[in-house]
Amino acid sequence: MPTLIPCLLAALVTLSPHLSAESPAAPAARQVEHISVWHGEQVNDPWFWLREKTNPEVAAYLNAENAYTEAMTADLRPFSEALYREMLGRLKQTDLGVPTRRGAFCYYSRTEEGKQYPIQCRRRAAKDGAYDANAAEEVLLDQNELAKGLKFLSLGGFSVSDDDRTLLFTTDVTGYRQYRLFAKDLATGKISGPLAERVTSMAWSADHQHFFFVTEDAVTKRSNQLWRTDLKEGKPGLVFEEKDGLYQIGLGRTRDRRFVLLHLQSTDTWETRYLSSDAPLGAFRVFLPREKGHKYELEHREGLFYIRTNKGAKNFRLVTAPEKAPDPSHWIELLAHRPDVLLEGVDPFQDFLVVREKRQGLDRFRIYDVRAKAWREVTFPESVYAAFPGGTPEYTATAFRLNYQSMVTPASIYDCDMASGRQTLLKQTEVLGGYDKSQYATERLWATARDGVKVPLSVVYRKGLKRDGRAPLLLYGYGSYGLGMAPTFSSPRLSLLDRGMVYVIAHIRGGNELGEGWHDDGMLMKKMNTFTDFIDAAEFLVKERWTAPDRLVIEGGSAGGLLMGAVTNLRPDLFKAVHAAVPFVDVMNTELDATLPGTVEEWLEWGNPNEKAAFDYMRAYSPYDNLAKKGYPAILVTTSFNDSQVMYWEPAKYVAKLRTLKTDRSPLLLKVKMDPAGHGGASGRYDALKDKAFETAWLLGQVGITK
After folding, report:
1. Catalytic residue among 458, 643, 644, 683
2. CB-CB contact of 511 with 358 (8 Å)
3. Which residue, of 149, 261, 512, 560, is most buried by count of CB atoms within 10 Å of its CB?
């Protein structure tokens, strides 16, 4: 590498006028005229050529950027390495997950020190269904063996047939999220395949002989075709193809295993088709035809369909319908709509229902005793926390498994007895090195946005913090797709907190923390709310003396990277440093190209730029299109060459253009994983932790903390 760096830099760069003569030369990507016509306007994009992935000059430029980043952060290397050792020291590297019973076996994963990936295992359950540690262990899939000779391995689907004899699984070895399907005979250990390419979901039939799977389009990566396969014959047959480019399809199965479900979803309209799982050669039936704006999904128990629907209920309500007469005229309401509560899902069991809800940005569960017709709320001890279903596959279960954590409480697995509500702790993730949660505090704040709306903030810090405006603070945000950001625990985050940095999640509009309306108010022609909410949250934290602009760093990835780009353009003076991970910053070029993965179906989230009003609105916030000749904070941009969600050229073009405009001396760095890696970065746990240590060292270094 030392001999390669000068060659790459000499070929592609000139000395930046914003750096001193002693500084390494910043790369300068070649500019080539490229004219597009947008609504009658000719637009030149001189860095458009960076989309040419197979062009050697593209790889050379990206390698030059990596060399520049390495040179500019050389002084941080010891700190980054120390942080890696510190973060690794908190992990219990050899560990066992909580076993989960499914059928005759208890399934679990375990890790071994020095190995990048988990090992998927099972043991035969005891007669009472409990985990039997003395039973022989059966290794279903050792991902470390699968990953031999590979730089990346992602395990996608993982499903065992009802007779416990055959495993279906999918893997991606490039980071492009292009999964291949394999079958493993669990008696002989023989792996067959790949049985299919570009598989995104799958489901078994009850006869454990047939299975279904969904594939994606090779170009757009839209999940659009449903296939059926006979395990013996092995040749798949096409069952269904979704032609509408706004819709993705996916497979599921009801908890009682009675039905295979085909989900067809766009951003604002859902449809479900169902097939009896013991009649795999039959035809899928449409439960309710798609109706613009109607979102619904199904579950089933004891002859009844349970339907979560937004018909007449913005935040959803729960109704039931007889299996033989499921049309709306036979619906009976079980749980009414509540304006302040988002009904997120329902898990039916033989004698109980568990509903998942969100209220005031917090997760909660309620249990319904079907026989007693009574509701019970599951309570949690902290005022700011996250709680998720922990996986309870057995329909006959009497205890519901959940994962509870907070920003100070490590992930904790509980079994909640559905009859009494009593919670039993099964495992709490160990944090080695003497972690003491009593030394940290978490709280919920509410920032007032410029239009008067209250925006929730989740805060964590080490006790003893002085609120005098001098503390460094990392503000994180996302705010898109109706995906709320949960206030979860992170052991690597302790490296920030122990050095006096406050960590805050801004639950801005565009997520679902305060219901479906929270998403609506941060999408399409209201997308600017997402960005102004984040800015207003930052100003609130400064005003309340949690931090100051010269101590405030921000971070976001993917659509959160769009957030980073937008707010940095709008208020560069407010932030000291920015980490934009796999950032969606070239909004107009991407959304005007219907051949790119995700573009068409996301028009319902961002807007269709072929319509002039939407085009004008989107262009007004697109980070790449609004870069200007002015000063910017320190910026670190990270991406992967094989990312399929946000193509590498978006961050590369952003950095190349910004280099020609920024008038300050702050660092602008691009770090590209050229080896196979995905939207989430490296696949191995040690590799991912090294990346986290580097990013943490860089952010801390921007506020003067280097040890």
Report:
1. 643
2. no
3. 560
